[in-house]
């Protein structure tokens, strides 16, 4: 056979690395990987039952029908040489039996020969101490963290929120979303940092007056050049969103802002009728805020039928942290309470309890030690 036949010989190689190109009859039919005769069109070979081996069945123990599996030519594996012998077959045991025979987890989370912990094998056993709760330990990391600036809520966030996070506060009308954003900026201003407040709902003067009435001196901070309050018409912002999105990171950097508030993103979302267009624009806008390197708080209207999601169900998936403000009404409807819940914070441990809060002239106070009944 000439050197030009190397490609034809290569095609006849099997997965076990064997090739019979040099010794095989050219007219002999090729074997499949499982050892059966190739039943290609025009071939007289037919499949035979396992109890009636045909003359075409391989006799060299290479895995043909009726023969044990072999890894070497002419040496069928049986007895002690067989890969799986009797009870050693990993597929001979059903799941229930295998589960009963599996080792129990030890107290350290590994697999031990002796059961530890309670009667179910979980938790501390007699004389063992209770492991610390995940929510009771701060996340050990090198990420710079900040406080929100709301009494009680910061105690629910162990270690603080990572800097440059994109957060959203979701709530229906009257739950204090604007106050939440103003209080978030107040913390930065009190610490000597700078902030930007963008409002799509109120005028600049109304925002300054609201903060001043609470004793937060936003007008003074603005005159000192550490606060910028910008009121934008939502229609104008939607029409100029591309320009604003491109300019915002540069403007934030030039101003030196540490925190930014956008109140509210729901009005921006309402400018787009098509869901895919709305999602694309909001995604690109939030990405520009992240690129600006500023810690951002968005406010969003809650869905009318579900207080735990935003009106369009977009921003909570794009955000690093989600706070939910909601009304809680008793069955007798005699009293309406306000409650806050931390839905998520990336890279931070936090309480998952729903806690009551109060909205007063001094801002928001969360009662961390109280419970909602």
TrEMBL record:
Domain KaiC, residue spans: 144-373
GO molecular function, one term: ATP binding
Superkingdom per UniProt: Archaea
Keyword terms: ATP-binding, Nucleotide-binding
Biased composition regions of type Acidic residues, renumbered to the chain: 16-37, 70-91
Gly residues composition bias: residue spans: 107-126
Alphabetized Pfam families for the sequence: ATPase (PF06745)
Region (Disordered): 1-138
SUPFAM superfamilies per the UniProt record, alphabetical: P-loop containing nucleoside triphosphate hydrolases
PROSITE patterns for the chain: KAIC
Protein name per the record: Recombinase A
Species annotation: Haloferax gibbonsii (strain ATCC 33959 / DSM 4427 / JCM 8863 / NBRC 102184 / NCIMB 2188 / Ma 2.38)
């Amino acid at each position: 056979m000439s050197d030009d036949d190397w490609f034809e010989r290569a095609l006849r190689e099997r997965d076990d690395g064997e090739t019979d190109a040099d010794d095989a009859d050219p007219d002999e039919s090729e074997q499949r990987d499982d050892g059966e005769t190739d039943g290609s069109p025009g071939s007289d070979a037919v499949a035979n039952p396992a109890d009636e081996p045909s003359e075409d069945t391989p006799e060299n123990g290479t895995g043909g029908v009726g023969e044990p599996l072999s890894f070497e030519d002419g040496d069928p594996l049986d007895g002690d040489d067989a890969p799986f012998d009797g009870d050693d077959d990993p597929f001979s045991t059903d799941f229930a039996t295998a589960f009963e025979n599996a080792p129990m987890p030890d107290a350290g989370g590994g697999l031990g020969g002796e059961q530890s912990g309670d009667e179910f094998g979980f938790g501390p056993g007699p004389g063992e101490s209770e492991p610390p709760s995940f929510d009771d330990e701060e996340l050990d990391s090198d990420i710079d963290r900040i406080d929100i600036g709301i009494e009680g809520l910061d105690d629910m966030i162990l270690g603080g929120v990572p800097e440059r996070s994109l957060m959203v506060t979701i709530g229906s009308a009257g739950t204090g979303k604007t106050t939440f954003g103003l209080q978030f900026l107040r913390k930065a201003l009190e610490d000597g940092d700078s902030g930007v407040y963008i409002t799509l709902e109120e005028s600049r003067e109304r925002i300054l007056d609201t903060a001043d009435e609470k004793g937060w001196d936003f007008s003074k901070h603005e005159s000192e050049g550490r606060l910028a309050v910008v009121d934008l018409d939502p229609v104008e912002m939607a029409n100029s969103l591309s320009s604003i999105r491109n300019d915002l990171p540069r403007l934030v950097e030039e101003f030196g802002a540490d925190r930014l508030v956008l109140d509210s993103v729901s009005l921006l979302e309402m400018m787009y009728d098509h869901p895919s267009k709305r999602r694309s624009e909001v995604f690109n806008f939030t990405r520009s805020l992240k690129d600006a390197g500023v810690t951002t708080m968005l406010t969003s209207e809650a869905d009318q039928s579900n207080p735990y999601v935003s009106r369009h169900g977009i921003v909570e998936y794009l955000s690093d942290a989600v706070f939910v403000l909601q009304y809680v009404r008793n069955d007798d409807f005699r009293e309406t309470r306000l409650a806050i819940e931390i839905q998520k914070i990336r890279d931070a441990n936090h309480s998952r309890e729903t806690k009551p809060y109060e909205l007063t002239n001094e801002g928001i106070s969360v009662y961390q030690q109280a419970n909602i009944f």
